Amino acid sequence: MGIEKDIHQHTFVNAKQKAVINLLFSYGWVIEYMKKFLAKEGITHQQYNILRILRGSSPHPLSTLQIRERMLDKMSDTSRIVDRLVTKNLVKKITSPKDRRLVDITITEKGQQLLKKLDAAPNPVEAVMQHLTEAEAKTLSHLLDKMRSSE
Description:
The chain is about 60% helix and about 5% strand. It is built from eight helices and two strands. Strand 1 and strand 2 (about 105) form a beta hairpin.
């Protein structure tokens, strides 16, 4: 077990390169796990992220820009993803009464119910993190925060 075995590479320039490669590989692994979990409900991980963002802001609407700022995947085409959620009746778009050029987006009752159903399912985060203790998870989170502090 280890990144060396997973990617069939036994040498790295240094420990930092190995860590970054491991991080990228692990990101892909977690995303694939989440995709399988969410596919049962017919949504993508980006759609799930938007639904959770909107639930967190509810009852206050958000603009597409505000959603994009809060998303985990900043490269997502937020407008297109929101339109797909509208088609599924999981969110609604309303022209802003304050500025008719803006669109307010809110989660629908159907979207709320879907998130409740997903919340009640076996937790995919627990499954992904099952081999880490609470202390190890805190350490991992701290190290990732520290890594990004160089921005």
